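The aim of this short unit is practical: by the end, you should be able to scan a pair of folded records and say something sensible about each. We start with the first protein, listed as its amino acid sequence and then its structure tokens.
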Amino acid sequence: MVTFWKILLVLTAAGGGGALATAAHIPLGWLIGALLVSTGFTLAGMTIRIDRIRAYGLVVLGLSLGQSFTPEIMAQLIAYLPLILACGLFTLLSGLLFTGLFTKGAELDASTAFFCTIPGGVVLMAVQAQRAGASEAHVVLAQTVRLGVVVLSYPVLLHVFLPDHTRDAVAAAVGGTQAYTPADLLWVALLLAGGVGVAHLARRSFLPNPWMIAPCLFAIALQQTDLDPVTLPHWIVTVCQIILGVSLGARMVPDFLRRSLRLVVVSAVSTLCLTVLLVLAALAMARISTMDEAALLFGMSPGGMPEMTVAARAMGVSVPLVLSFHLTRILLANLMLEPFWHILSRLLARCGAKP
């Protein structure tokens, strides 16, 4: 019971922080406000565990994002597939440029540094680091710091480079709410139940992040039929932003942060450097292709899939395009990173370096 009231207190305070940040016209205010408030609670010594709440929040988020994939959008994505693959591969490999910062600046071994610097997602990088014999704790911390820096910086970058998207997002946010009939609410309930069901089934599959991807694929499949599902209420996106913000802030445990201060600094610096590189690459790619600049900016970002797709929706960026970039990058990371590291470690061993 104490845990319930503690979580309720944190979520309520985080929602208040999100409301204040949104009222102050901070980009992605609900998520950023919740992140800052929950970080404050964590640094004050409170342990926050909302893994189960986050999982069901991801189910709702996956359904909501999947509803964006109309047949017309799917045809467009197929046409862009070669570009999406190339950008996904570039984003993953670009992290290697900053491996030296982790080996020298944070004094990590090459294996741990490799999985710290690759922008492949917190959970995926932690699992692969464990298999490779690297320090899972250091990888989780580095990847978490990377997510925090990206979430805080990318909405600002979009506002600076593409202000029209920010203005459109604000206009859409104040444009009114949709009225739901009892039949609509019944459909929403059935859709949510279906999303939870497929997520539980997908937990036994090979899918990374099944809580989000399986419901998303379920909603995409519905969109390709003659069914015309009701769009999930707008407030759900707001709730997801608060939950994601709290889950990110909950990882900022003070003891480990103090013991790994150099790693925190190196992670933040490398993320900023990587962000500059990928922003320039995205803007250059937009010049030579017909894809939307904002979609490229968010699609090639080194952030996590849930965070960046929520940010894309909140900032008026094409969700299907951004989600396709991040799904492709996750699949590439699953398929190639472990074999690539084994080959690289053998080369390092032959050169006399410690893998």
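Turning to the second protein, read its sequence before its tokens, just as you did above.
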Amino acid sequence: MQVLRSLQEALKNVSKSCVTIGNFDGVHMGHQKLLCRTRQKAALSGLSSVAVTFEPHPLRVLVGAHTPPFITLPHQKLEAIATLGMDFTFCVEFTKELAKLEPEEFVCTYLVQGLGMRNMVIGYDYAFGRNRKGDYVMLCELGERYGFDVEQIGPVLIDDAVVSSSRIRDMVQSGLVWEVRPLLGRFYRVQGKVVTGRNRGGKLLGFPTANLRLLDELFPKTGAYAVWAEYLGRTYPAVANIGYNPTFGNDVLSVEAHILDFEENIYDKEVCIHFVQRLRSEQKFENLEALISRIQEDILLARRILGSPEAHLVEARHCV
């Protein structure tokens, strides 16, 4: 998949296209349905498939820092879109000036002229442009004027509720990482570089941990989790703890993973943590012996959970 970041790049690389548009935070099952349908329509018509998204997220520009944490960082979003086989992703720089554009001006400049759009696929509730006037009805009118067709896709329902980024965010923050997997089509994951910690896990407790410095914004509820630790393309069973280490009186949130049956030195290396199931809440233990005993129980439980057939890694689905 090729990433386009300007109108000039779009004009140079894309002549005729089938387009879908959205913020795609999380690239969840609803987004995947849109992207797969776009790819399928493009293939049937001999067009390029293009996902149009915005960087930074419009809310960050319009509201500022007081926005909910995002499920995926920009590079993670692009990686997930790429796994679905799209030809291009057009990352439009979102500014306050862009927000003031009328829908017709945006469609004409960026989609019709920039991407040679012939077909468009949108979600059931999608609207864009100034005052969100660019809805399905208006897009159909613009399609007649500029020569493109519009298809609107219905919502994806799981457990009788619409799959949405806000629903996923609430579930992750509540620690419902196992329950959120069907909505994402994969386990929720965070990624970061292993940094030097206080070295209590290995020397004091006998359970060496990888301390991660994360760039991600969305974290599961504090507690212990059964996880997969991904390093250099391989996955290993692990137990991760998100919290403040109350037994030691810490006041800084940390993410630590004890990777089972693993002895490599991975300081300063990138590791991805896939959250499978929450084991327990964060606790303050009376002494080290009680803490060590509980960690041993966590490891045994994690091994059982990760050894089950349902606990395999699930990645974003390829279109068929």
